[in-house]
Amino acid sequence: MSIPYGRQWIDDADVSAVVDALRSEWLTTGPAVATFEQSIAAEAGADAAIAVSSGTAALHAAYAAARVGEGDVVLTTPLTFVATAATAAQLGARIEFADVDPATGNLDPAAAEAAMTDRTRVVAAVDYAGHPVELDELRSIAHARGALLLEDAAHSIGSTYRGAAVGSIADITTFSFFPTKNLTTAEGGAVVTSDARLADGARAYRTHGLVRDPERQRMPDEGPWHQEVHEFGLNYRLPDVLAALGTSQLSRLAMFKQRRTRIFERYSDELADLGLTLPVKHAHVDPMWHLYPLRVPAADRRRIFEELRARGILVQVNYIPVYWHPVFEDLGYRRGLCPVAEQYYREEISLPMYAALTDDDQSRVIDAVREVLA
Ligand SMILES: Cc1ncc(COP(=O)(O)O)c(C=O)c1O
Q1: How far apart are CA 211 and CA 184, in angstroms?
Q2: Within a 10 A sphere around the Cβ of 23, how many other Cβ atoms?
Q3: Whose CA is nearest to atom 8 of ligand 1?
Q4: pLDDT single digits (tens) 17-32
């Protein structure tokens, strides 16, 4: 049996929660969504959570709420999934990439600061592998130029930074609940924020920009059925069926975190003698590890990757620098822009990391890594 790099852990309580939602009055836009949103907001230490249909939708809605548009610049990291940048580009922003810290793979505050201009509307940082970015520094850098800090926390729900939950520090934070993530709703995501204006903007964007409050309508006398659109939005709603799964999963987040921490520590202990670059953890953070990013000599990465895959260890590479994607190349972005991220990419292999990974399967991974490096 092969071992994936990430996967969900669904138990009987999750199945019952989904079945209950299916048998309820509401398949979507019902009470399970509100319950899930309250639980996510509490977990994230934020005033509001807006559940959406994916982490990509969360980013798109968050940028829209930040009023990103033509003429704006969004500054981000190249070491991320393309959605972090693509959703801002979809709104007409120009994407500026700043390089990463070679230790954590996270946006380097010094590089970010050097790249800031008065047109920078949002600094979008990613908690790579689950390790929170330097939130205090990045927030100051963004605010000094009148920009907002968006934290793409697709990897890091459950992590803390200086004792505070991810979601409680940045101006606006986004989560993904894809099956490989720290908790899942199959597809899903959320925007969290304690800024009421940003919360309203993301909520409106999720549902076509519909205005239902007669006080705010331009045509309030149209009739009791009336709702109207002032600004474009999309249908990014998360159904009740999936929100119910999310609430059930969230009740086991602490256990998932313990398990991921143990797996992380065991890899770090048992691979320490191989002379590879292992992921680091700063003292002021407590990550919920989403990935175990191992770094191997760049010249051997492809062989190691293929030999691990041949042994049924379905390792992954996270990530090709975003601006290497042809869509960015066609816009004029060139290789060499962020050399640290490029080198990180050339060396990186993500080992299997998920709460349901058994000790025996982790032993298989460790033995296979040792074998292919021997
Ligand atoms: C850093 C990052 N941002 C955004 C996303 C997009 O999330 P989703 O797949 O839920 O749309 C992902 C997940 O693939 C991710 O890893």
Answers
A1: 30
A2: 7
A3: 55
A4: 999 999 999 999 999 9
Q: 84 alpha carbon to ligand 1 midpoint, in Å?
A: 8
Domains located in the chain, CATH noted: 3-250 (3.40.640.10), 253-373 (3.90.1150.10)
Q: Name residue 124's amino acid.
A: A
pLDDT recorded at residue 122: 98
Cβ 55 under 6 angstroms from ligand 1: yes
- Whole-structure pTM value: 0.98
Q: What is the pLDDT of residues 173-184, one digit of tens each?
A: 999 999 999 999
Query: Does ligand 1 lie within 6 Å of residue 126's CB atom?
Result: yes
Q: Is the CB of 130 under 6 A from ligand 1?
A: no
pLDDT value at residue 266:
98
- Residue 169's φ and ψ, nearest 5 degrees, are -115, -50
**Per-state percent for the chain, helix, strand, coil, to nearest 5:** 40, 15, 40
Residues with pLDDT less than 70, the chain: none
Nearest C-alpha neighbor of 288 from the set 161, 191, 176, 148: 161
E-strand stretches of the chain: 3-4, 48-52, 73-76, 94-97, 120-126, 148-152, 160-161, 164-165, 172-176, 189-193, 210-211, 228-229, 285-286, 292-295, 313-314, 348-351
Token readout for 74 is: 């969004």
Cα of 115 to ligand 1 centre, how many Å? 24
Cα(322) to ligand 1 centroid in Å equals 13
